[in-house]
C-alpha cells in the first residue's frame, strides 16, 4: 500500500490588540532601580568596594519613579502582564502558561512603560521600614500615587482567548494588583496597586492605530 501524505493547512495567526482603560482602587507604590543603585550593584558584582554614602531620601524617592522619555510617569508593561498571568488562577479552562504565551502588554519607550493617568496630585514620598536579604531593617523611600489609572494595550491570540475573556482577565488582574505591597507580592500582606476596568473603556485597535 502506498504511503499517504498529509498536508497541513495552517493559516497565519493574526493577533488582536485591544485598548483597555483601568482605574486604581488602592494607591500604587513604585520602586524603580535608580541609575545610582544600578551602578552600586555593578561595582559590587565587579568586586569593587565603595564607601557607603549617607542616605539621601529625596534622591531615592526620585530614583524610584518610572519615567517615560517625555518625563511623564509610567509603570512597566511587564508588571501589568504579570498581573494578567497571575489572574489565570481565578479561571477554569486557561492555564498561567497559556496566558504567558498568548497575552502581551505593549509599553512605550526603551523601558516599555505604560503611561499612568488619572492622578490628581504628584506622588507622595513614603518612608517604609523593610527587612533586606540579610535580615537587617532598612528604610526605603518610594513614590506613591493615591489616585491613578492607565490605558493599556493588550495583544492576544484570538484562537486562545476571546475579547470578553481578555477583558475579564485584565479586570481580575486588578485583584492581585501591581507595584510594591500588592496582594500577590512575595511576603506581602499589602492591599496596594489594585485596579479595575472602566465601563466603556474598551476599544479594539486597527493595525494603523497599533503602529501609531
What does this structure look like?
This protein is an alpha+beta fold and 212 residues long. 25% of the residues lie in helices and 27% in strands. Strands 1, 3, 4, 5, 8 and 9 form a 6-stranded antiparallel sheet that branches. Strands 2-7-6 form a 3-stranded antiparallel sheet, with helices on one face. Strand 6 and strand 7 (137-145) form a beta hairpin. Helix 3 (77-86) runs antiparallel to helix 4 (96-102) and helix 3 (77-86) crosses helix 5 (163-176). The longest helix is centred in the C-terminal third of the chain and has 14 residues, at 163-176. The chain is globular and about 80 Å long. The protein starts with 15 loop residues before the first strand and ends with a helix.
Count the DSSP helices: 6
Could you list the spans in which at least 5 consecutive residues all have pLDDT below 50? Answer: none
Helix-residue proportion:
25-40%
Structural class: alpha+beta
* Terminal CA distance: 57 Å
Query: If you average the pLDDT, what whole number results?
Result: 88
Along the chain, the helix and strand elements come as EEHHEHHEEEEEHEH
Beta-strand content: 25-35%
The major β-sheet equals: 6 strands, antiparallel
- The value of Rg in angstroms is 21 Å
Envelope shape: globular
DSSP strand count: 9
